[in-house]
Amino acid sequence: MNTKLHLVLVRPIYPSNVGFCARACGNMGADSLIVIAPQCDINEHEAHQRAAGAQESLKNTKIYATWDDFYEAHGSGLRIAFTRRGGKNRPVPQLTDLLDHVKTKIPADSWQDDIYLFLGPEDDGLNAADLELINFQAQLPVYGKMGSLNLGHAALLALYITQDFLKKPLLMSGFDNVISKPSTKIEFNSKSVKEWLELLGQDVSHPTKSIASILSNMVLRAAPSSRELVVWEKIVQNSIRLLKKVKPEDKCQHNSK
Asked: How far apart are CA 145 and CA 122, in angstroms?
């Protein structure tokens, strides 16, 4: 599924929030940030400051003066508006439930190319006239008593849920792609541990209850990374080399203490 994901801000008021949303797009791999009828200058210093490392997302923001201009440029795709204006007569589903409905009930060719997520002004959100222009309405999960979300937080959460639905490959900061690449098997050299302990005069003959088995299990229960295991092995090998240089009579004196 090669769906393009777009975040659309309608009449945003504060440059800082536009910057936050640009950063959210950078974090979550959104294909574009779109702004309709902005009520602020999105090129202000505050916007760039809040965008932090996502300056490219902010720089490439597409701005449209009206809804008509937006629809002229983006005529097709799935459109989801976020609102808390639901009620008994107009229930608003959670985004996860709505996406499941779309996947099972709506022909894929009508939505798989582009998905647009719409967020309204910070003060009062999307109005009724805005909502009439959008395919679906949804709400974001909130577990606490504070029902409203900051615009940047709402953008981040909405993008994450949608990317998770689209099964986009996940990138973790500071690591390689942990989904598309097969995980490597962690190798632990138990033989070197036994050799090290034998040089220290320890009994390692018992298959499960020896100090070698206990120490090996302790290390593996800590779930070390491959790099950490390399460091561990270097320490053990250096200890073995040093112990082999010790004279036999010195070992006897050490073990008798």
From this structure: 19
Helix (H, G, I), strand (E, B) or coil at 188: coil
Beta strands per DSSP E along 121-175: 136-138
Lowest mean pLDDT among 29-33, 127-131, 204-208: 204-208
The letter for the amino acid at 10 is: V
Q: Is the pLDDT of residue 19 over 80?
A: yes
Average pLDDT over residues 16-45: 91
Predicted TM-score (pTM) of the model is: 0.66
Per-residue pLDDT tens over the stretch 67-91: 999 999 998 889 999 998 665 566 8
Q: DSSP label at 124?
A: T
One CATH from 3.40.1280.10, 3.40.50.410, 3.20.20.140, 3.40.50.1100 for 4-166: 3.40.1280.10
Asked whether 153 and 104 are in contact (CB, 8 A), the reply is no
Ramachandran category for residue 223: left, alpha or beta (phi over 0 → left; psi -120 to 50 → alpha): left
Provide the 10 A C-beta neighbour count for residue 252.
10
Q: What is the mean pLDDT of the chain?
A: 82
